[in-house]
Amino acid sequence: MPVGSVNHKFVAFVNNHRKLIYKVCRIYCRDNAYIKDVEQEILAQLWTAFPQYNSTYQPSTWIYRIALNTAISFYRREKRHHVNRTDIDQSVFQLAIEQENSELEEQIRLLYRVLEDFPELDRALLLLYLDDHSYEEIASVLGITVTNVATKLSRLKQRLKHLLTE
């Protein structure tokens, strides 16, 4: 297959799932500059893996697996290099949310703040769950059993309910 053809297919593939990539970046990074860095790293990993993509897998499941692994690795690496960084540019929310003062935006901000203290696996699990993936898909992406997904989700829901109603 000609390189140009692969390029066009890859760009279309990524554009169809840009929001998914953004969500993964956002859940692991608060700083706008780091979001862009993680996004670039995810795109590089997707580009490298794209020729081996098996179309029998759902594209979102395949992208989630690569994006989450890349974001978690980046998060761990950056976490070792700094203790406190703040997000200077709050306009990042404009990329994903159209109305600045909407109730939905406030709920999303609250969710991101609460999730900052969750372990990486729990964040990934919740992100996949909130995107309506089945337990089987979540188990496949994260490499855990379906029973483990159900147990962890039950505990995480209780923890979130407690944290969000305080």
Structure description:
It is a single chain. The protein is mostly helical. The chain contains 9 helices and no strands. The longest helix is centred in the middle third of the chain and has 23 residues, at 59-81.
Question: What is the average per-residue confidence, as pLDDT, rounded to a whole number?
Answer: 79
For the terminal residues, how far apart are their CA atoms? 56 Å
Separate helix tally? 9
Task: Characterize the largest beta sheet: strand count, sense, and whether it forms a barrel.
Answer: none
Q: What's the total number of strands?
A: 0
The helix fraction, in percent, is over 70%
- SSE run: HHHHHHHHH
Structural class: mainly alpha
The parts where pLDDT drops under 50 for at least 5 residues are: 83-101
Question: What is the approximate shape?
Answer: globular
Give me the Rg, rounded: 17 Å
Q: Strand portion, in percent?
A: under 5%
